[in-house]
Write a structure and sequence with these properties.
Blueprint (H helix, E strand, L loop, with lengths): L7 H26 L1 H27 L11 H7 L4 H15 L11 H71 L2 H46 L17
Helix pairs in contact: 1-2, 1-5, 2-5
Function: May play some role in mitochondrial processes.
Protein name: Optic atrophy 3 protein
Pfam families: OPA3
């Protein structure tokens, strides 16, 4: 199947990517409702992601484990998602000024961890689907290229074998001809061919010369006939002059 002529493979991969998004959303909803998914699948990666994120931010800002209590749901909704970073920076600055240096990062509550874990799971599914599509496309193109190369190599080898076979056959024929016809026979055959060619050329030249002579003779006869049968011009009759008085 050629992707350039009829892109079925690309359409198939695009369909997989589009299907993966609603599938990820359904898995996220199921994870929010199911205690098993929430406890064993969503919470551990969410807490780990939260811990790594907070630890990285604290390392970048020069802090060593300062605890920042997250906003509750009402305050976060009122403040807005865009200003959560501002809240974090504000609290960090205040705690730094006041001299607080805690060593532990407070984990997320159960609802926030479940939400974050479900989002991470959905993004992981979408990323896995896209990565799988890319890997499949790469593998397909590589396999197609390998098959074309193998076919080209096989064709070249077959042509080389045919050329070698023809060369060997030509050498054998030349050897057989040289062995069957001695030198004198070859000279005689060459002389006969030359004589035949000369005779053919002489015949063709004679025929051409004869045709040209006949054409010239016909033209000459036509001119003579025209000269012989051309009517003579009669002198014009002149009126007698009147006598002068």
């Amino acid at each position: 199947m050629v992707v350039g002529a009829f892109p079925m493979a690309k359409l198939f991969y695009l369909g997989i990517r589009q299907v993966s998004k609603p599938l990820a959303n359904r898995i996220k909803d199921a994870a929010r409702r199911s205690e098993f998914f929430k406890t064993y699948i969503c919470l551990p990666p969410a807490q780990l992601y939260h811990w790594v994120e907070m630890r990285t931010k604290m390392r970048i800002m020069g802090f060593r484990g300062t605890t920042i209590k997250p906003l509750n749901e009402e305050a976060a909704a009122e403040l807005g998602a865009e200003l959560l970073v501002y809240h974090w920076l504000e609290m960090r600055t205040k705690m730094r000024i006041m001299g607080f240096h805690a060593e532990a990062i407070k984990p997320l509550n159960e609802d926030a961890a479940a939400e974050l874990g479900a989002n991470l799971l959905g993004e992981a599914i979408i990323f896995a689907a896209a990565g799988s599509c890319l890997l499949l496309e790469f593998w397909r193109q590589k396999s197609s290229k390998h098959r074309r190369e193998v076919a080209q190599v096989a064709t070249v080898l077959s042509l080389r074998e045919d050329v070698e076979y023809l060369e060997n056959m030509l050498d054998e024929v030349q050897v057989q001809v040289q062995a069957a016809l001695p030198r004198n026979s070859l000279d005689e055959l060459r002389a006969e061919l030359r004589a035949e060619l000369r005779a053919e050329l002489r015949t063709e030249l004679q025929a051409e010369l004869r045709a040209e002579l006949q054409d010239e003779l016909q033209k000459f006869r036509t001119e003579i006939c025209k000269d012989c049968y051309e009517p003579e011009l009669k002198p014009e009759l002149q009126c007698p002059e009147a006598p002068k008085e």
